[in-house]
Structure formats: C-alpha cells, structure tokens
Design a protein that fits this description.
Length: 345
Amino acid sequence: MSAPSLNRRSFTVLAAAAIAAPTLHAQGKLEKTKLAIAVGGKASFYYLPLTISEQLGYFKAEGLDVEISDFAGGAKALQALVGGSADVVNGAYEHTINMQAKNLFIQSFVLMGRAPQIAMGVSTKTLAHYKGFADLKGKKIGVTAPGSSTNMVANLLLSRAGLKPSDVSYVGVGTSAGAISAMRSGQIDAICNIDPVMTMLEQKGEVRIISDTRTLKGTHEVFGGPMPAACFYTHAEFLKNNPNTCQGLANAVVRGLKWLQTAGPSDIIKTVPESYLLGDRALYLASFNKVREAIALDGIMPEEGARTALKALASFEPAIKPERIDLAKTFTNDFARRAKEKYKA
C-alpha cells in the first residue's frame, strides 16, 4: 500500500521542483522571511558555518530574519521540527534516514560538514587501564543528548565490539562547559562529543581518544567512506512550498562556507561570540585547526556519502532496512548548486 503513495509523492515533489526551478534561477520573492531554526549545540565547531553566516549578516543579505534556538543536542532540535516549533534544523544528515524509516520525509538541502567531527574518549581517571571497547560494558558514556549523532556514533563503535546500546548507560551532557564538568567530576567514564570540548579534555590529559572523525582520514577509517554531517534539513513539504526561502538559506550558508575556506584563526576569533571560546582562546584555535578540513566546501552532498551514512546506520539500528530507504528523498543538491554558482564557491 505504501509504495504507490510514495511514487505519487515523489512525482509531486519532482513536478513541484520542475515548476519552481525557473523561479529559483531568478531568485523570486521569498515565500517566508521570518524563520525559526533549531540547532543542538550552536557554540561547537560542528555548527560553525551557521554562526559565521549569521554573524556576518549573510542571512539578512538574503532578506531573511532568522531566529536560532539552541538545544542541548541534535535529537532535541529534530523534535522541534517534528513538533512544529522550528521551520528548519541545522543538524546531522543521518536524521533524514532515521526519520524516513519512521515514514516521515525530511530532506537535507545544503551540507555544512563533510566529516562528523565526533571523537570518543575514555577517562584517564576512571578507565586508566582501558584496553578496548569491551571495557566500556556497564560504564556511563556522555553524549550531547540521547538520540543525537554523538549517540549514534557511540552505538556504531560499540556494535563493532559486540556490545549493544543497553550494555552501557548514556548520559546527556550537552556540547560545552557541562560536558567538561561531567567528565572532570567523574559522572561519566567515557565521552562521545564534538569540538572544542574534545580537544580541551584531550589537551588537559583528561581523556584518551579511542576513535576520531574530526579529520577526513579518521572518518574514512571509522565509516569506510565519506560521511556527511551537519546540514540544513526540513520537511520535504516545506522545501516544496518555500523554494525561494530555502534558496536564500542555502545562499547564505554557501557564502559562509566560501568565507571559511580562506579565513585565518584570527578571523574566526573576531567573528564568533566570546562565550564560544570557553575561556581558552589558544585551545579554541587548536580545536579549529583539527576540524578545519571537516567543514564542507560548497554545500553539495556527495552521493557516496549518503550511501556511507545508510550503511553505517543499518549496521547497528535494526529498524533501518537499506532496501526500504530511498536515499534520493533524503537530500537535494538543487539549492546548493545554485548557491555555488551564485557565489563561485
């Protein structure tokens, strides 16, 4: 019963895209100028392109008034979209696959990260004699929020060691000072998180890194291919009904990505809010240098990356059956391509 309705749905989306395409080239009138964007941990490098595009006025330049709500983790930001309090999410691409498995169609339309930037480390205090993932059985692992991409990466790594998610206890610790204090106070034995948190804990000798996807090489080692990360995603219906608005969002982000390609560390420091530095400018810059290559160049999603994400999720999530997932409905490159053309990214 579901297959014919999906075919009709995809035909409708394709037809709408075909009708909208000429308007988009001319960058028609915005259908919606005020937008609610949800994000899970805005101060982290994972979401740096969003902050740059916001701070440099690129959304305003597109005629958009964006209100950004910051949540403890990506799963909470996704809930805001599903619940109707957000129009768009800046979050992990894999949520589009997870949601399709639940028959909810959300789509990525501009890529901001070409590597997950997620590292996992064990406490040098409570797990000083750590030898392998099997040692994590019965331990407490800090993630940004349960159900977020940090949780998914931890599940993937554990599954390869023959452990199930129920073999550990997950604790939501956020993406900033709270995560650091949870590790320091011994509330957690291991942590799966993003930068600058992970670099700060690593440089202070508080964690030993056991898996790292902050570089393209490390990502390939963990996932076996390119793994797309942060993106703008929204309901397929929203993209269909607001093509010019979504084009404006993609334009602003791709312009921010282009700026980031040539920006020096001092440019970043001058642009991000002071609170993002977590009180340590040098460590913040050390973190930036670690994740720099993980930032997308032009907003375009590689098809191979989408396939890598599906394979990774299916390896530890029984609800995800690859044969039932239509990857073409999890992302579109139409908006990013036009933005790339416009800004020569």
